[in-house]
What does this fold into?
Amino acid sequence: MGESDQIVVDRITVDLVDPAQCTPLPTASDVLHRPDQAAGAASVLYPSGAVLTAVESLLPGRLSDTGLIDALTACDRLRALVDAKQSELLAELAHRDPDGEQFLREEAALALHLAPATTQDRLDTAAELTSRLWDTFDLLRSGHLSAVHARILATATVDLPDPVAAKVQAQVLRRAPGQTPGEFRAAVRRAVAKHHAKSQNEKHRAAAAQRHVRREQVEDGMGWLTLFAPADGIETVWTAVNAWGTKTSREDQRAADQRRADALVEICTAALALPGLPAEHGLRPSVNVTLNRHGFSAVFMLCCRRG
It folds into this structure.
């Protein structure tokens, strides 16, 4: 029992009692005659087949508002138990057929009506939860965490070293039961950044080393220009194009995408006229456009003129 399971009364530390340990399992009579109490008990008891039987027997129309909320809570915790059991089964399946030679993965995909890629994601998550993310699995099995939360953590830590994954898990699980999936995802992202900053920086540097610009000519005198660069550079280009392509008059009937495309060309055209433009062999770059005899396809030629 940790610090969160204790309170201080008159300077005396008192252990709190786990409601699940002192709440009796609802009987058939409770479900029939005291449905609210039965729902309340089901919402705090550890999920089990017996709890499922009690919840399944509840009649929604006989529950008060509070009873409805308790019953919904109980259903959520029972769903987490089933998700945990499915993770156990998937982990065992992956263990029995690690190389896929027995086609158990394909059979699982068919049985669950899932795409092969989705099934593989489930298998990867199950392997993580039933091994180094056992604390997360334990919370899932006890109904304190949803499968969505568990999947978020497993996906975020799958490529992390074991010690780092353990630190991330320990940090985020403390508040996880009270967080929405969005809040939990943000917490996981912060924890990964905190405990794995060096690796993240190395990955960014490696990716940034691959930055490039590529052009491709297509039909009808058009072409593609692809820029792969660090996110801050992309934002700089996007901000400039957006600002330069702002609509300035009612007569301008171009769509926003068209204005942005024209703006990028205008910015680069202006750049070609700037003094100090790097020259090669004493020649200054310029652009000539040559149309073929059909008048459709354009060939863009980078030529030079003397500065």
Q: What stands out?
A: Residues 145 and 178 are 9 Å apart (CA to CA). The two ends are 79 Å apart (CA to CA). The first helix runs from residue 19 to 22. The longest strand covers residues 283-291.
